[in-house]
Amino acid sequence: MTTLDPEELTGSITAVPVVNLESFRRRSPFVVPRDGKNLNRAFPGDADGSFTDVLARAIFDELIAPADVLVDLHGGDQVEALEPFAIYDESPVEQHSRELATVFGLSYVVRQPRDGGGLAGMTCTAAAEAGIPATIAEAGGCGLLDEAAVELLVRGVRNVLRSLEMLPGEPESPATAPRHVGASVWLRCEAEGWWESAVRPGQEVPEGGVLGHVRDLWGDVLEEIRAPAPGVVLFQTTSPAVEAGGLLVGFGTELD
Asked: Cα 227 to the chain's mean position, in Å?
């Protein structure tokens, strides 16, 4: 934000460093402490709902709806390690959204289908349904302020602005072309226990490959988590402590 030169800029940018101040101040990953809801599963929100629903509605009405394009930057949660990727949604503005996600220049570009295979209530989903091209860019993780991840996001935003002709010049080409992911699966455990991953973010795994194990606190295996199809580990939970139904791995499939 502070390094943009207004003399170079065509058009306008609305930039918000933190949209969820309560979770930021309380260091609360995933959910808003006030009502236990995940803000990025609540869009476009509800003015008559609980705190998170009202916050999502305000963000949508004040920031997303007036925009021509949305870029939502994420840094990975406190118990999450990830491979840098960008998400866009199947929608009437899908082609433009895909272009934004691709030009951002991260390792993987993930398409969210409408058929329930993706996650509902995200900013990019609500924007796309309103006819606004959008992407979520993810880099970083484990609650760390990592300079390399910050630089990926800064470069990606500049690439998007150049592709929109809001800044002069051409987008920078990444060292390797992004791989496109046609679908994704969020793998969860059935029982609470101790999670041990057998893979790393960015690792490509064949169908049936072991992703990790959930054990009880005596070390006995309760579940073996396997890849449902050939794909790539986009992100994974890094904490051993998992509750029943807890998210373990975000797994991308249908790689091009």
From this structure: 20
Q: DSSP letters along 151-192, please?
A: HHHHHHHHHHHHHTTSSSSPPPPPSSPPEEEEEEEEEE-SS-
Strand 247-255 and strand 231-237: pairing?
A: antiparallel
Helices (H) and strands (E) in the chain, counts: 5, 13
CATH number of 182-255: 2.40.50.100
What CATH number is given for 21-163 in this structure? 3.40.630.10
Domain positions in the chain are: 21-163, 182-255
- Given a contact cutoff of 8 angstroms between Cβ atoms, the answer to whether 214 and 189 are in contact is yes
Which pTM value belongs to this model? 0.93
Span 30-80, pLDDT tens digits: 899 999 999 999 999 999 999 999 999 999 999 999 999 999 999 988 899
Q: 89-105 burial, b for 16+ CB within 10 Å, e for fewer?
A: bbbebbebbbbbbbbbb
